[in-house]
């Protein structure tokens, strides 16, 4: 797309309200576009509509009216979560009208260099961590995007001496054309969101949009241990800065000594950076990192690589790596009850995220899992269930699929809960059953391996209900 100023007196349609829709509408209105904002939800479910109408913006709620998209429309900006199969989006594509997400609009506004971070797992933790690292290094970060603050809102006032640190989803990236971050990081790729993308090919291609416009003046931070990430390397034009848990790299960030895949050990390790001259810079001992779990070592490696690519000195990274205690709903310690520790990992919306969480514990785990059925058969969970889990409590659309996998893993205690349409009561019952199964020294872990939308408005709601139930035991 062009700069928002280029759409003065031209028709632009924004589909989907929420925070990002409101902010991008304000930006385009300020630029002088003839703006229509549309949301299929009923008016009473769109409290943001009044704010936009007060500015003179036309807002249409309650469906997608006939004629919303027509040949006179020059640009469509859609909420990332709206699928491309939605009728107005399909119509725009048929008419050759450009369809973008808010990220593309914000890119044209933002004066600060952008750090873009995506991946199937670990995005929010890594993005937040990068913000802490850059702040400690005195580099003026602004943390925005899929993590909370809409990118358009942050981009309007961003300055050239700041760094825009942006968490990006595949949904957001799929709707980009010119977007070009100065530092781009792909953390990992796992099978997820296939209901939206229709298959892994489109999902991976959407993630790869992060690197599409980079040049040799930019940096691509890539997980060297992830086979899908490695396959993208030949197509990346930016300077490569890899990170690895399992290999001492010629240049990049790595764990030293390396981890041996699928082997648990207690070897003392460090995170180190080997620069382009071959000089090795020790950063921090793994045991000093503020977050538990092998996968958080991987997140720390990525965060360090991003910070160094942005210009942070390796010697200044140890303190914020140690001080950071994580993000809500991501392996969040909740409470100890009757000798068992309760952890909220509601953000685990795919199998890999749950496997990573299970690998963080040496204690026996009572696992609460299940949720939206996106077509996975969850076979990949079986080894982790065999190794770590003593009992499971299952809910949601996938409860029976996961029960089959638990039986396949040889788990003796498999409980399925379902209170009909009362999602909160179902989760509370699951917590109570898990408490009955847990013994002193165990871990009770909510790590669903599924999205929440079959029962809850969001993974945050699911996590909050779990925590409230745990505190009431």
Automatic annotation (TrEMBL):
GO biological process: cell division; cell wall organization; peptidoglycan biosynthetic process; regulation of cell shape
Protein name, entry field: UDP-N-acetylmuramoylalanine--D-glutamate ligase
Metabolic or biological pathway, per its Swiss-Prot or TrEMBL entry: Cell wall biogenesis; peptidoglycan biosynthesis
Domain Mur ligase C-terminal: 329-450
Binding site for ATP: 119-125
Recorded GO MF terms: ATP binding; UDP-N-acetylmuramoylalanine-D-glutamate ligase activity
Manganese among keywords: no
Organism this protein belongs to: Paenibacillus kribbensis
Enzyme class: ligase
InterPro entries: Mur-like_cat_sf, Mur_ligase_C, Mur_ligase_C_dom_sf, Mur_ligase_cen, MurD
Keywords, alphabetical: ATP-binding, Cell cycle, Cell division, Cell shape, Cell wall biogenesis/degradation, Cytoplasm, Ligase, Nucleotide-binding, Peptidoglycan synthesis
Transmembrane annotation, as ranges: none
Catalytic activity: UDP-N-acetyl-alpha-D-muramoyl-L-alanine + D-glutamate + ATP = UDP-N-acetyl-alpha-D-muramoyl-L-alanyl-D-glutamate + ADP + phosphate + H(+)
Sequence similarity: Belongs to the MurCDEF family.
EC identifiers of the protein: 6.3.2.9
NCBIfam families reported for this sequence: murD
